[in-house]
Amino acid sequence: MKLLLLSSLLILLILCSLSDIRWRKIPNSLVILILGLGVLHMLLYGSVLNSVTGLLLPAAPLLLLRRYYSSIGAGDIKLIATVGVWLGGLLNLSLFMAACLLCALVLLLKRAYTDHFPRSVPFAPFLAIPVIMSILWVMY
Asked: Each residue of 42-54: pLDDT tens digit?
């Protein structure tokens, strides 16, 4: 069952990433599926406190940041929060920081090789990469 849940999360993260790359939107239906499966995962294998911490730890500061600066999309915040239900607080925060570093590295490389700097960046793929890597680490 755990393998099925983790595989579902992996597929949903890939779908979120593809949607974010193509349309710069993460569908609420995918986020709700991730949340629902995360709650099921929590009930079977985790703790409520760890999941609530994972939900709030990275998302709360980002919501405050979004209130004053629209630098991060609401879909990205929802995705980070729902992934936190799966991962718990510290792991979600660590993977969020890894995603930020990965995004910054890609943007710096893009800036070094082109004059074009994107107005918006799809963040879901950068979040999905470290999360998928951690899932694969757990699975194998």
From this structure: 999 989 999 999 9
